[in-house]
Amino acid sequence: MTPELLTAREAAVYLGMKPSWLRAAAVPKVRLPGRGMKRGAVRYSRTALDAWIRQHTVNPVHPDGSGEGGRLIQTARPARPAPTRREAAQGGERR
Three-state DSSP class for 53? Predict the structure, then answer.
């Protein structure tokens, strides 16, 4: 039986990321109560992680298999950098 609540290390392995990234990211967390001055332990819900993955998936595949999941997406051309001051003084032409 796999646990519903994962530690930071387990959740990071589940997502394929480092635990430090996971702690800094806006991934839903569960804070368990602690005792006294000690802060509670942080856990990650497997169900919430699955929902977060679906929400952040680019070009998702529909559950029935249709959709654009297998289609190659054309990337935009990189933006041309702004001319330097020298180039702007010379008319904005790049060599």
Answer: helix
- Cβ within 8 Å of residue 11, ≥6 positions away: 19, 22, 27, 44, 49
Q: How far is CA 28 from CA 16, 63, 75, 77, in A?
A: 16, 24, 30, 34
Kindly calculate the radius of gyration of the chain based on its CA atoms and give it in whole angstroms.
23
**Each residue of 47-64: pLDDT tens digit?**
989 888 888 777 666 566
Overall pTM surpassing 0.85 (yes/no): no
As to burial, measured by CB atoms within 10 angstroms (0-12 exposed, 13-18 middle, 19+ buried), residue 34 is exposed
Q: Residue 1: exposed, middle, or buried by beta-carbon count in 10 A (0-12, 13-18, 19+)? A: exposed
**Residues pairing with 67 in the sheet:** 61
Show the beta-strand stretches assigned E in the chain.
5-6, 30-31, 42-45
